[in-house]
Amino acid sequence: MVDPSLYTVGGTVQANERGIYLSRQADRELLALCEDSTFAYVLTPRQMGKSSLMIRTAEQLIDAGKQAVIVDLTQLGTQLSADEWYSDFLDLVASQLMLTTDVKQWWRANHQSGLTLRLTRFFQDVVLAEVAEPIVIFVDEIDTTLSLDFTDDFYAAIRYLYVARSTDSRLRRLSFVLIGVATPADLIQDPKRTPFNIGQRVDLTDFSAEEALPLAAGLGLVPEKEQQMLEGVLQWTGGHPYLTQRLCRALADKPPQGWTAAAVEPVVAETFFGRMSEQDNNLQFVRDMLTKRAPASLEQEVLTTYREIYRDRRPVLDEEQNLVKSHLKLSGVVRREGKQLQVRNRIYREVFSQEWIREHLPENFWQRYKPVLKWAIPVTAASVLSAGVMAGLAQDARESAQEAKQQKAIAEEQTVIARQKAQEAEQNAQEAKRQTTIAEGQKKLALENEAKTEEALNKEQEANEQRAIALTAAETQQQRAEEQANIAQQQRERAENQAIIAQAQTRRAETQTALAEQQTKLAEQQTRVAQLREQVARVLNLLPTTNAVSGLVLAIDTMAQSQSVPSVALTGQASLLKAVQVSQEINRLAGHGAAVLSVAFSPDGQRIVSGSFDNTLRLWDANTGAPIGEPLAGHGDAVWSVAFSPDGQRIVSGSFDNTLRLWDANTGAPIGEPLAGHGDAVWSVAFSPDGQRIVSGSFDNTLRLWDANTGAPIG
Questions:
Q1: Which residues pair with 336 in a beta bridge?
Q2: Backbone angle region of 701, left / alpha / beta, with phi > 0 → left and psi within -120 to 50 → alpha
Q3: Where are the domains of the chain?
């Protein structure tokens, strides 16, 4: 069974729930480079699968415990100042890495530094400081920066982060992958600056027959037919990712009557040729690259070089540093095979044909031989001019013959297509004849049904006569029944009067019941509203505490319940928003107003006591981190030392106010008056193993023993 949903003809494969991802050599190369923290770039024509490759690699890195960030530069736009553009770029990076630093505030606070320095410092001082894992930052759609006049600094900063690895080893954890339709030479356009010459290129090649085989599954054929049809597809697309999926989708949308390789050709013509070539976005991109997007100084040379490649009269060698050939490769219309350039596939060859080249690159005899004639006329005789002209005419004749040969081949192909269409027309005619035969049969059947209908009408008339006789008899019986009904009517009237009274009483009772139910529902709704508002209040009470996570869970539950109660829906949403903003880790015990100087566990390990510079002690639940009760206030200065009694029932504290204090560990209440006797701050306190005595150490160079029950000094 055909399944067109398997094919992705726009956007990334991952955006199509049923899309098929085809792995290529580039998948393995890019993943290996990212795992090795090597800078890389994937600079190829559009719709070759760059973004899908990026997302697939990022997912694999995350599964391996690394950090992957994807920044699509089209999100930033081009109508921004340099400062806004860089700030927004870092904001996207920080949000995916979940950094705690406020990017916008940091960027403004460091405005005294230039853009490049601020950018590199952010990665060194913020990103690498907060993230311990290796980080790979994918920068997609880099060709959007080519129209900006300030992004030379951006690529210069990326180059610096690579070069600076020699002096800052932390930078070995950071790498970039640049993705888009551009060449490395395009990235830094200022000729006075060092070009972008770092990183390793990853080439995205067309699908091989083996790589593309899973695409045949959407055609719903047996394996032998699948391979045959896929071969027919690849003969036209050459394995181009977009064109291959687009053609398979067209076959699945409109399955041919015969699944043969020859059946692919008319589908290609309907999908890509004629007016359809103007509508296909891939062909439009290639057309624009050949005619509009080339630099003005290179437009003529781009088309001239493409013509040489198309004619294939002599090899056109690839040159990495040649701007014209690089532009042709980025357009996608040609690809490198061995050391030379060839037209990428048969579809491109048919659309961007010799005729198309002539239309966009007009060239008459005078334009071709103008330099020769300008030189020859004043120097030599008419014979030289005649020889040159004849040579030119001969060359034109050869080219015309070649073009005629190509036109003949095209005409033969069109003849094949015409024959196929004629066959289709004949098949349609046969189908129309079959439908006519069926229609005549249905007409005959309708006449037979009409005769049966007349017979049925006669029978119905006889039945009506029998019903009239029966009706007369029924009327006689009805008269007798009416006499009896009059008697019963009087009885019914009496009963109805009584029923009316009962109904009135019933309606009154029902009204009261309905009113009671409404009041009950209103009370239930008010109760629910009150409960939800109470939950919101509990959330807000829990958020400032160390039990804020419970507050966050309660806020989620409150929002879920409040969706059906409009009067508190906004309040529920607000509580969840605040919970998300202020919730903190469950193991972070916050509650003191100043530094914590001393802590101790209870003997059973269920509680914690802490002493603080804010002059108080606090008790905490050691399992949840929640505070127990209010702060224990009683000292006049900082609490330097705390300890639990062996039975966990009491706490002793020593303070900078020169005293000790005993506390009830269950209620937090002070036991007796402060224990005074030292001449300076009490730095350390401890219970004896039997809990009967307390020892204290002071800044006055002495220790003292105390009765743990009475608080009296011993000795």
A1: 341
A2: left
A3: 25-201, 596-714
Residue 550 sits at φ, ψ, to 5 deg, of -60, -40
- Residue 267 corresponds to which tokens in the numbers above? 């589908």
Candidate from 348-362, 451-465, 619-633 with smallest mean pLDDT:
451-465
Structure tokens at 34: 């990212």
The H or E element that residue 557 is part of is: helix 548-562
Query: What's the whole-number average pLDDT of the chain?
Result: 82
Contacts of 592 (CB under 8 A, 6+ apart): 610, 612, 613, 614, 616, 618, 631
**Is domain 596-714 classified as CATH 2.130.10.10?**
yes
The domains spanning 25-201 and 596-714 adopt the same CATH topology: no
CA distance 606 to 596: 19
Distance CA 74, CA 572 (A): 35
Of 361, 356, 314, residue with least CA distance to 333 = 356
Residues 6+ apart with CB under 8 A from 130: 97, 99, 100, 101
pLDDT for 380 = 46
- Contact indicator for 225, 264 with CB cutoff of 8 Å: no
Residue 473: CB atoms within 10 Å: 9
* Sheet with 670-676: strands ordered across: 639-644, 650-655, 659-664, 670-676
Judge: domain 25-201, CATH 3.40.50.300. Answer: yes
The full length of the chain comes to: 715
Name the helix (H) or strand (E) containing 582: helix 566-582
Report, in angstroms and rounded to the nearest whole number, the Rg of the chain calculated over CA atoms: 44
Q: What is the pLDDT of residues 229-251, one digit of tens each?
A: 889 999 999 999 999 999 999 98
- Distance (Å, whole) CA 553 – CA 556: 5
